[in-house]
TrEMBL record:
Keyword Transmembrane: yes
Entry keyword annotation includes Membrane: yes
Protein name as annotated: Uncharacterized protein
Keywords: Membrane, Transmembrane, Transmembrane helix
Length: 202
């Protein structure tokens, strides 16, 4: 009984020798071709270009502050209402609004297909950028260097050291004006959003 009824045991196949056959009636999709390596993507190029432009813009602002800053402070600040402090307050309050004018018109713009009014949006954005850059040049002109980097030119009329001698608390005034400008911009934006989302006739 032990000799005739016992079935021979199948040998287990090794993992590497398992073979799967195609099922009848099923079509097997061809293997996807290997993708060729392409160059850098458009998004990567835009990010890289944006970084380069950002560094160039910051360098240009510092250079502009050194070249045109003294002339702006010596020419405008003494004749401005409130002298140098009044000039700093006006520039500080205006900067957040100029930044909003540069950024907000470009929100939601589809750059692939031209939209109605894109020229107007671009003009407003360019104007805000130009005003913001001019204000930053003014601020850079009042940026006093470290003592070891100060030379005789730092104390001439309109230069950074002269500005701080005439207006010792100039940076505190600028920071306060920036906060006031940002707060007024936020209040205007929230009020405008509330009016646009409220139902008519309420």
């Amino acid at each position: 009984m032990a000799g005739g009824s016992a079935r021979p045991k199948r040998r287990r196949a090794a993992k590497g020798s398992l073979v799967y056959e195609r099922a009848r009636g099923r079509t097997v999709a061809p293997a996807a071709p290997e993708r060729r390596r392409r160059g850098p993507s458009r998004a990567g190029v835009l990010r890289w270009s944006g970084g380069v432009l950002g560094v160039a813009a910051i360098s240009g602002l510092f250079a502009g502050g050194q070249v045109w800053g003294p002339g702006i402070w010596s020419g405008l600040a003494p004749r401005w209402p409130g002298d140098g402090y009044g000039f700093a307050v006006s520039a500080g309050v205006l900067l957040p609004w100029a930044s909003a004018a540069a950024v907000m018109p470009l929100r939601g713009v589809n750059w692939r297909t031209p939209e109605r009014g894109w020229f107007t949006r671009g003009a407003i954005s360019f104007s805000g950028t130009a005003v913001g850059a001019a204000i930053l040049v003014v601020f850079m002109g009042a940026f006093r260097p470290k003592p070891r980097h100060r030379g005789p030119d730092c104390y001439r009329e309109g230069a950074p050291c002269w500005v701080h001698e005439q207006n010792p608390y100039i940076w505190a005034v600028i920071l306060g004006a920036l906060l006031i400008g940002a707060a007024s911009l936020y209040r205007y934006a929230t009020k405008h959003t509330a009016n646009s989302t409220s139902p008519e006739g309420t």
